[in-house]
Amino acid sequence: SKKISRLLFLVIYIVLRLISFVLFDNQFMAGTQPTDLIVYFLLFSGIFVLTSFIVDLSVSVSESVHVYRSEAIYDHLTGLYNKETFHFFMDQVYSASLKKKTAFSIAIIDIDDFKQVNDKFGHRSGDEALIFFSDMAKGLNNDYLFNICRIGGDEFAIVDISEGFQLNEFLKKLQNMLQNTPLLFENHLIELTISVGVVHYSGRLMSQGSSKVEYIFEEADKALYQAKKRGKNGIAQFTR
Q1: Cβ(150)–Cβ(135) under 8 Å?
Q2: What is the DSSP secondary structure assignment for residue 110, as one 8-state letter?
Q3: In this predicted model, what pLDDT tens digit does every residue of 102-147 receive, in sequence order?
Q4: How many CB atoms lie within 10 A of CB 115?
Q5: Alpha carbons 184 and 198: distance in angstroms, whole number
Q6: Mean pLDDT of the residues in the chain
Q7: What is the CA 212 to chain-centroid distance, rounded?
Q8: Long-range contacts of 164-167, Cβ-Cβ distance < 8 Å, separation of 24 or more
Q9: Furthest-apart CA pair in the chain: how many Å?
Q10: How far apart are the C-alpha atoms of 89 and 25, rounded to whole Å?
Q11: Which of 109, 126, 191, 194 could form a disulfide with 118 if both were Cys (CB 3.0 to 4.6 A apart)?
Q12: DSSP per-residue codes, 118-176
């Protein structure tokens, strides 16, 4: 433990220091009272303990800040960005589009029949399905570097600052990977599919500022509904 390690270090230091006084500094030992040595080592021990306490406190505060920042930014189950971070990305992309007339796209992803997975195999299977999907998306994302967010339950979202060609490619590859790679859970193979709603916004339309962030998200949600209505495991896209 930390306490035993520090105590051991302190004892070893004091013993080595005494040995060095005896072997290499006889004049110092001859002119020093035992009480002076005791005071010297007590002062050193006190400074050492105080310094250790301050370092421990600093590390503890640093770790707490790191945990707080991680919980504020990332989803604890999947390791993806959380809903709050998604809205931050949306605000940033929306503002940039208004100022610079740049295009952007938003995609909302939903795991098909997710409730049936929970009902049939238990809630732990649902968590495993979310982790499985997220790990697959993160692995594929190494080639694209999108900001993938979990916005609630089995819904995920991506905001892409481009014309959307790479986003479409990413989504199609992700669908194919899921179709060809079922989740193995307790000797059961669970086939997962996703439905996706995508809306592409041109910089010219956004420069007028007629659309709000909430409306943009609603349009992507409507596109997702269309994908579900068409029979799931598909992508519905709108261009604005």
Answers
A1: no
A2: E
A3: 888 999 999 999 999 999 998 899 999 999 999 999 999 998 889 9
A4: 11
A5: 29
A6: 84
A7: 27
A8: 164/103, 164/105, 164/198, 164/200, 167/105, 167/107, 167/198
A9: 96
A10: 67
A11: 126
A12: HHHH-HHHHHHHHHHHHHHHHHHHTTT--EEEEEETTEEEEEESSSSHHHHHHHHHHHH
